[in-house]
Amino acid sequence: MKDVRVVSTWTDLTRDSAVYLLFTFSAIKVSHFIYRCFQSSETSSFSMETHPEALRRERILSSKLYFNVPESKVSIIYSSAYDISFMGIEKLHPFDSTKWRRVCKFLVSDGFLEEKSIVEPLEASNSDLLVVHSLNYLNSLKSSATVARITEVPPVAFFPNFLVQQKVLSPFRKQVGGTILAAKLAVERGWAINVGGGFHHCTAERGGGFCAFADISLCIHFAFLRLSISRVMIIDLDAHQGNGHETDLGDDSRVYILDMYNPEIYPYDYSARRFIDQKVEVRSGTSTDEYLRKLDKALEVAFLNFQPEMNVSNLVTLLVQISPDGITSRDEKVFRVAREREVPVVMLTSGGYMKSNARVIADSIENLSRQGLIKTQLDSAST
Question: Which InterPro entries does the record cross-reference, listed alphabetically (predicted)?
Fold first, then answer.
């Protein structure tokens, strides 16, 4: 009996030890699992914070700004939400903040466009804007004084910011959505016109010159990822230097910048000028014929030195010494050189400081249609 008790006791001890060891081993494994999960989460968070490209990629891929446009629509993008109307305050700035609506009105009344065939874009969200802009910059727009500085309309500083967001910044965000969508449409159909956008004075960190968001930079970053575009040419023919996209994209070898601008006027951004691949200075007093000759040469050099997969053209009617017919010829040259090379072209209408600008832009678009470079009317079968 004594021997039996010894064996029994030893068996109990062995069983208890085994249970204890199994429990200990399981506890260690669970602890390690929890630690690895925590470490993985921490690493993922750290990775996102230290690798902005990963976060940018996630934002672009999750964006809703790209959507399928039905064949019953043409490649002209506009929304009534583009127009800025803020109790008449907008009239304190020389910029024509209703030109976008009037451009489309002319196109419709002249029989070149049907209202129902115009594409309405979505408004860019904060997540979309963060693809280029910093959170600090977007937060700065919560100050009405900051928006007043950017729009160059001092009274805006005295209005509650929720009104400024709704009446001023929301139209800008809508136009950003239009510019981004225009790239997708251009790649699919060969061309697209956003009757708005072209905010070429805004950088990732600073707005100015009536430009609150960097729609050109955003459009190109979306195209790089969502459209698998690897080379983009920016042709900026606004009289003002396009210092915004130059600052944001000038050191990116995938982007070629041709900028024809007047160095005697705003923004005097000498730092950004060093990022221009082809700089063509057009001073006050330049005739229409001389301007067009310079443009011909510049386009020849640009396409000789760079083979783009997409062309973003910031076209505007600010050069008062250039005749309306000269503007029409200018835009035709840009579209023709791109279409002949089968390069998708995005047109943005940018600034406009005279009431006559809307008519000139509409005339230019109508000429592009007559020349067969774009198609503003649908076949009856497609409608």
Answer: HDAC_classIV, HDACs, His_deacetylse_dom, His_deacetylse_dom_sf, Ureohydrolase_dom_sf
Worst-scoring range by mean pLDDT, 2-6, 54-58, 314-318? 2-6
**223 vs 122: CA distance, rounded Å:** 17
Secondary structure class of 85 (helix, strand, coil): coil
Is residue 313 within a helix (H) or strand (E), and if so which, with residue range?
strand 310-314
Amino acid at 140: S
pLDDT band of 45, cuts 50, 70, 90: very low
Q: What is the DSSP string of 255-291?
A: EEEEEEE-TTSTT--HHHHTT-SEEEE--TT--HHHH
Q: How many CB atoms lie within 10 A of CB 316?
A: 22
Instruction: Reduce the DSSP state of residue 378 to 3 states and report it.
Output: coil
Over the stretch 170-229, which tens digit does the pLDDT of each residue have? 999 999 999 999 999 999 999 999 999 999 999 999 999 999 999 999 999 999 999 999
Mean local confidence (pLDDT), 5-27: 48
DSSP labels, 91-110? GGSSS-TTHHHHHHHHHHHT
**CA dist., res. 141 & res. 207, Å (int):** 9
Integer-rounded Cα radius of gyration of the chain: 28
Q: What angle do CA 240, 322, 285 make, to 5 degrees?
A: 75
Q: What is the mean pLDDT of residues 346-374?
A: 88
> What count of residues does the chain have?
383
200 in catalytic set: no
**Catalytic entry in 201, 221, 240, 245:** 201
